[in-house]
Amino acid sequence: MTNDHLRKMHVMTYAWEKFYDGTRILLHGDEPLPDRLRRAWLYELHHAKRDGIPEDQLERYDGLRAILEAEQERELGAEAPALVDDVLSILLALEKALAKRG
Length: 102
What we know:
By secondary structure, this protein is an all-alpha fold. Helix content is about 70%, strand content about 0%. It has one domain (about 5-100).
């Protein structure tokens, strides 16, 4: 394996860990979904590096990032479930990509 391949695997694995842990926050807890989404973003998801995200999920990731980084200026409401779908889609894409590379 080349150094570039190893680095990409490391970045993707780290992104998978952040999205996995973020998903756990989304699934557990008594707070409303928008609050869990904020917590998942603050504590886990925003740590994932963009170059660790599969290319077919970059648009979804960029949209998620834009909304959640601007979220402090507005309330998340009806869009929260769609954002959770984005998180889960990215997590599944990361699992697939890692399985192919592994």
